[in-house]
Amino acid sequence: MPLYVALDVGTKTIGIATAGVEAQLPTPRFTLARQSVAKDVADLIDRLDDVAEWVVGLPYLPSGDEGRSAKLARQIGAALGEATGLPVHYQDETLSTVEAEERLREAGHRSRAIKGLIDSWAAAVILEDWLNERL
Question: How many domains does the chain have?
Answer without folding.
Answer: 1
